[in-house]
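One-letter codes give the sequence; the integers encode the fold. A sample entry reads:
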Amino acid sequence: MALKIRRVLVANRGEIAVRVIRAAKELGLEAVAVHSEADRDSLAVRLADAAVAIGPSPAAKSYLNAEAILKAAADSGADAVHPGYGFLSENASFAEAVERAGLVFVGPSPESIRIMGDKAAAREAAARAGVPCVPGSEGVVDSVEQAVAVAAAIGFPVMIKAAAGGGGRGIRVAQDEAELAEQMGVAQAEAQAAFGDRSVYLERFIRRARHVEVQVLGDGRDVIHCWERECSLQRRRQKIFEEAPSPALSQGTRERLCGSAVALARAVGYRGAGTLEYLFDDESGEFFFIEMNTRIQVEHPITEMITGIDMVREMLRIAGGQPLSIRQDEVEVRGVAMEARINAEDPERDFMPSPGRIADLVLPGGPGVRVDTMLYPGCVVSPFYDSLLAKVVVHAENREAAIARMRRALRELRVEGVRSTRDLHLRLLDEPRFREAAFDTGFLEGWLASTATSPGSHA
């Protein structure tokens, strides 16, 4: 059955734009890249069938300019828009505008984005679907008095979280009533500044939590899961290193966790790729739903490696009117995959961004190695955007072999012209607690604070 779309505009930049363009071409679709002034010579522009300038370098004037993106789609003859991740990917109003323009939004419906993108509303939907949630407020809390009452019921410490938040922003932890009263207004102000919405809600803070997430795919009629990923290695609530499957889960827990994700996604008629995020309590063995990302995730390659499913191609197929191409009983876990995010940052200087021109580039290869990147020799790493340079992804028969393969791949990687986090990942691979998978969401920051960064982080 032929797809109902033929030309896809990629409303994003960097490695995810390259990723979508490649998937589109494998399906016989034409791909249109949009670009800011800073990205006019980007790899995505070079690979696309057509490219349209959408504004100056700052994202607010280009990649977040919905009007400019829709005009680019109209001018280029695109009939579908893939938002990638970040920017406008989880903006329900943008998805609606795409559909009003007569275009296909490669992702969930605006209604699904709106429900699952609001963390408080997502919790309510999860509760209705019988999915366990972290004990917390029933919806948003507006006042200190209301927050104190909720905290008294669920117990301290608590997390104050932006209802419209994402990417680890808009989160504060309060250990007692006095700190809650102090942090409440701060959290609301941060939420307003970051997301244009001051709404916050409360959750119990789990002291030894792992961050585990489930990848789902839906076609609006059926939903399947593609198992889970371990994403506990975080700095300032930003993921640094991921693996799949999670080394912490028993098979029984894994099946219950993934089954709950499918139940929730089905309850909202989910379409496209999405990720349901959970906290797993290492002490009790319980898991709790925390939020859903209604888009493709940065770390989707490790799920692709263990399942053999091309997530982005599947998104495009579904958007083109085709049903899921795989049944749940066909989704098997094969081996272990890991992803190291290589950022243009200097670990010796508190991870200060390191923009610049790539003077030389050597990417690793060989069996079981994949690199998702937008880099090429001579390209410029801009100071205007996220510092992600590349995702080094490996796949092997077990965790020990995956660690060895990742070490080999990172040693092959050479990026000259900017500082990078490559050497930090190499040190992490040698850490006994990492090798034993004895970590939680608080581990990485504690490890960074207790160990001196080794010299020579020029990758």
Notes: Residues 177-195 form the longest helix (19 residues).
